[in-house]
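Consider what follows.

. . .
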Amino acid sequence: MGSTRSRRARRSALRRLATELTFKACADKYIAVHRHGWRNLKHAAQWEATLKTHAELVIGGVSVRDVDTNLVMKVLESQSGRRSLKPRDGCADGSP
């Protein structure tokens, strides 16, 4: 019983956090947590620059909970005039 209650409380806290946390804040936290795992500081800088250039202007202030496929498509479409998006820019298997 205690573990079920604990899981529900954790899910509830994550939902609240997702509502309150903006995409930019979440991205900043992600970079801070994972920075040590990148081979060098250049990789961290690349992550920050890529998110700032490609996503922050479109969805930076949006709640993480509200980021959906349509918003992600807006980010990708906003880049179509700047450079061509290649499969390697997405997932490892080439999917978006």
